[in-house]
Design brief:
The chain is mainly β. Helices cover 4% and strands 57% of the residues. It is built from one helix and 21 strands. It has a five-stranded antiparallel β-sheet, with no helix packed on it. Strands 1-21-20-19 form a four-stranded antiparallel β-sheet, with no helix packed on it. Strands 2-3-4-5 form a four-stranded antiparallel β-sheet, with no helix packed on it. A hairpin with an 8-residue loop joins strand 12 and strand 13.
């Protein structure tokens, strides 16, 4: 049985509503769901850098207008940042180079998101992407089941690109409840042949409106069978929305997590989660 330990690692002033993070070259790249910036937190110096993702970026974009960057993944030198797709203003994807610190390109994924919804029979009101993985060949996009139908769906997308040449597969997952509320995907990362995922229980039936947080879990999906291998509660009161690998050995994996507090306060807490294998 997996044993876990959750501890506070650091607090970062200047970032609010953190929704995803990547650990790379001793830096943390962090996105916030109401921000128009990508943040880089340099762990050696504790410096915080901001890189604009929009033409007129802001730290706290009002809810109806925000791009809702909820998922971030990396492959090689590049970072890929996804809008949640929960409204028509949230269908963008950003490609950013972590070496040159330049925004390479932006994409409109409206057509892809529409095909994903049609293929998996997910209503627009249930569509809310909050996790992404890219392994150089396949994209794994995680729909958070916090809508009225609790559709936790893993989409696997392959092809030449995400605009007009792709194939889709999907799998629905039934996740455990916390205090009677079904947990829903909030992020994921691929380690060897296991997809480790976060899921949070939030007392809401809307992909748009927030609710009372009941806690979070971590779980694993076997990449070969696509079956859930374990789930473990890690908190009774945190809404963890970001997961990245910190270190690993034969007998344990250390992850870093960030928390979305659903406020306009520009302060983010980073946690370390140790999972003994």
């Amino acid at each position: 049985m997996q044993k876990i330990k959750l501890e506070l690692l650091s607090q970062i002033i200047g970032i609010g509503s953190a929704s995803g993070l990547i650990y790379k070259d001793n830096s943390l790249y962090i996105i916030g769901d109401n921000s128009g910036y990508l943040y880089e937190y340099l762990l050696d110096s504790n410096d915080l850098k901001r890189y604009p993702l929009l033409e007129n970026p802001a730290e706290n974009i009002i809810k109806k207008d925000k791009p809702d960057y909820e998922a971030i993944t990396s492959y090689g030198e590049d970072l890929y940042i996804f809008g949640s797709g929960s409204t028509e203003k949230r269908n963008g994807m950003i490609r950013f180079n972590a070496i040159t610190k330049n925004l390479i390109s932006t994409y409109d994924l409206t057509d892809l998101y529409a095909v994903m919804q049609s293929f998996a029979k997910v209503n627009q009101t249930d569509f809310n992407l909050e996790g992404a993985i890219y392994d150089g060949k396949s994209w794994y996009l995680f729909n958070r089941g916090n809508g009225s139908n609790n559709r936790n769906v893993l989409f696997i997308i392959e092809g030449q690109n995400l605009i007009k040449d792709f194939k889709i597969r999907s799998t629905d997952y039934k996740l455990p409840k916390i205090k009677g509320i079904t947990t829903s995907f909030t992020d994921a990362i691929l380690v060897n042949n296991t997809i480790y995922f976060l899921a949070t229980a939030e007392d809401t039936k809307s992909t748009y409106d927030d609710g009372e947080v009941m806690g979070s879990i971590i779980g694993g999906i076997d990449l070969r069978t696509m079956k859930i291998t374990f789930t473990k509660k890690i908190s009774d009161n945190h809404k963890f929305e970001g997961l990245t690998i910190w270190s690993q050995s034969i007998d344990k994996i250390e992850f870093l997590l960030c928390e979305d507090k659903d406020t306009n306060i520009l302060e983010t807490t980073i946690y370390k989660l140790t999972l003994n294998l």
